[in-house]
Design a protein that fits this description.
about 650 residues; 6-stranded antiparallel sheet; Transferase(Phosphotransferase), domain 1; Phosphorylase Kinase, domain 1
Length: about 650
């Protein structure tokens, strides 16, 4: 059966952006889909967490935090994380789509690999782990399933941070160890704790598996395998496959030491050791008269077997058994002039030229090719340069959005340049993505805040005014993003400025209720009664006007219709009551939910009007007052 077509997510548009096209793979924590980002028109890999994890709030919180950290990790051997989000019950991660196969697939097809090829896979894996370790991250689940081999031969590591997010879920409280037991370091098995040296241990187990075709331990249950990781010493790969070189045995033994302090300090330290081992492995012999044998990857060090030549010719003694022949003496005779022996002259000239050319040839400098160091750790890059006979000079670092901090950003001269041995190569280290901290501008004026934000290298977005009783009018309440957060250079920062108090609308309220409410809001209230046709003792005007900005303790004048008028005369005058009219008692609904109060009043035959004072959904004031008599069908006013 085609499981792709039966998958309910296939064909769905997640978050209004990602259209899921097919299912790629399914694992213990998530399912991976091929999707199209319709906003950027690019193909991505969408990792969707299983429902059991997505329903755990602790996991979702930790997952979002880890996704943000991993998204900042930029390295050519790390699968890049683009986005993270949720869509109802779906929690997903949008990642770089890497066409190819996992290292596990390759091991199934080919079995064990030659030592040199295994190291050429491990070196970029260690470079990726080293970049993560320098950024303060631990992978926690290094294994062949999390190493992708692209169609063009590149190596990519995936799933940074996912195991850490799983640790926040309820599943960890049921005794489930987070990670893959075949690659777990002893300290992970015993305490569940993991650090960069736990990743080094897993990398050592993976190297063992690459050169032998199997893991060092097996057992009937996962716990029996975990027990052996804690109590046994990982055997030398050559004990299973005799042709594995001692250099690889040493590297595996160092990485898989049971005590963390006996292992390399981090993946970068193991990377340096792996590069050294690769360089010292014997190469294929080149038969005389044939061209060089090229491997599928570039050499990681200078060619082995380089012959050093003297800088000038050595004096050549006469061959053994020969003597210098002296010219035979002849009796002097009369001659008309000197006649030179032109053969001897020519021979002497040829010998002089030959000696000169020989000296010139052997005095020529040796040239080497500048290796490609971009993306490497500085320590590994210096090691490679030293091995190639070149000298490193470190330049001032530069910010870069794609290359992580501490890795080589560029070289001068560039890779593949031909240089005289002993020349100096300038390395420019990356400072990582440039991030600017949002300054704290709370309490400052809007203009002062604008200037400080712009001076920090950020831009001002919107400026909004909000009613606020605590912050002085025209002073900054807060920013979004908040102060202290780090943003890209030029990113927008929104400013929220205090509008002080906003004058509430008390029109139509009973005089006493309006005065009490305004006083509670911090206003100085004065009441002015005038003759008016409005309902007696109700507010007919206010100054300042409703919704205007005012300061705390401001003077407020409310004008009310005179209270002495007989309320029944008012109703008869306005046609709302007759002498034979039926009256009803208005119940008290203050403190009740507005909708409940409205339903109760309408059931008694009253009309209801609701006005907002800025509170919640609870009745704060009413008119008429509770237990007042009013004609049937008259209007009751509620303020919430």
């Amino acid at each position: 059966m085609d499981t792709t077509t039966a998958d309910p997510l296939v064909g769905r548009l997640l978050d209004g952006r990602y259209r899921i096209e097919s299912r790629i793979a399914r694992g213990g924590m998530a399912t991976v889909y091929l999707a199209l980002d319709i906003r950027l028109d690019r193909t991505v890999a969408l990792k969707v967490m299983h429902r059991s994890l997505a329903e755990d709030p602790a996991f979702v919180r930790r997952f979002i935090g880890e996704a943000k950290s991993v998204a900042s990790l930029s390295h050519p051997n790390v699968v890049h994380v683009f986005d993270q989000g949720t869509d109802n019950d779906v929690v997903y991660l949008s990642m770089e789509y890497v066409p190819g196969r996992t290292l596990r697939d390759i091991l199934r097809d080919r079995g064990r690999l030659p030592a040199r090829e295994a190291l050429e896979i491990m070196i970029p894996v260690l470079a990726a782990l080293g970049a993560a370790h320098q950024a303060g991250m631990v992978h926690r689940d290094v294994k062949p399933e999390n190493v992708l081999m692209t169609d063009d031969g590149r190596v990519k590591v995936v799933d940074f941070g996912l195991a850490k997010a799983i640790e926040a879920t309820n599943q960890t409280r049921t005794g489930v160890m987070i990670g893959t037991v075949g690659y777990m370091a002893p300290e992970q098995v015993i305490t569940g704790a993991a650090d960069v040296r736990s990743d080094v241990y897993a990398a050592g187990i993976m190297l063992f598996e690459l050169v032998t075709g199997q893991q060092p331990y097996d057992g009937e249950t996962p716990m029996s395998v975990a027990y052996r990781h804690v109590h046994d010493t990982v055997p030398a790969p050559s004990s299973l496959v005799p042709e594995v070189p001692p250099l690889v045995d040493t590297l595996v033994a160092s990485a898989t030491a049971r005590e963390p302090e006996h292992r390399p300090a981090d993946a970068t330290a193991m990377l340096v050791a792996a590069v050294d081992a690769h360089r010292m492995l014997p190469r294929t012999t080149i038969p005389p008269g044939t061209g060089p044998v090229m491997s599928h990857s570039q050499p990681l060090g200078p060619p082995q077997g380089t012959v050093s030549m003297p800088l000038g010719p050595s004096p050549m003694p006469p061959p053994a058994g020969h003597t210098l022949i002296q010219p035979r003496a002849e009796a002097p005779r009369q001659r008309r002039g000197f006649r030179p022996n032109w053969f001897l002259v020519l021979l002497a000239a040829v010998m002089v030229v030959a000696v000169g050319l020989t000296g010139w040839y052997f005095a020529q400098p040796e040239y080497v090719t500048v290796p490609d160091l971009v993306g490497q750790n500085l320590a590994a890059a210096e090691k490679n340069l030293t091995g190639a006979g070149l000298v490193m000079r470190k330049a001032e670092g530069q910010y870069d959005e794609k290359v992580a901090e501490g890795l080589v950003l560029s070289t001068d001269p560039a890779a593949k340049s031909e240089l005289e041995k002993g020349s100096t190569i300038t390395l420019v280290p990356s400072l990582g993505p440039k991030r600017i901290m949002v300054p704290n501008v709370e309490g400052k004026t809007a203009n002062e805040a604008r200037a400080e934000i712009a001076g920090a290298g950020l831009s001002v977005g919107t400026v909004k005014r909000l009613a606020n009783q605590e912050v002085e009018r025209d002073r900054v309440i807060r920013t979004s993003p908040q102060s202290g957060e780090k943003l890209k250079e030029g990113a927008k920062v929104n400013i929220y400025v205090s509008a002080g108090l906003t004058m509430p609308d008390v029109s139509g309220m009973p005089k006493d209720q309006a005065a009490e409410f305004l006083s509670r809001q911090g206003f100085q209230v004065q009441v002015n009664e005038v003759d008016d046709d409005a309902e007696p003792c109700t507010v007919i005007a206010q100054a300042p006007k409703a919704k205007s900005e005012v300061d705390k303790n401001a003077q407020v004048m409310v004008t009310v219709a005179r209270c002495q008028t007989d309320i029944w005369d008012f109703f008869r005058k306005h046609g709302e009551a007759r002498d034979d009219e039926q009256f009803a008692l208005v119940p008290g609904v203050i403190g009740k939910n507005v909708n409940d109060a409205k339903a109760e009043l309408e059931a008694l035959g009253f009309r209801v009007q609701v006005q907002r004072l800025g509170g919640g959904g609870v009745v704060q004031y009413q008119r008429p007052l509770p237990n007042s008599e009013r004609p049937a069908g008259s209007t009751v006013y509620l303020w919430q």
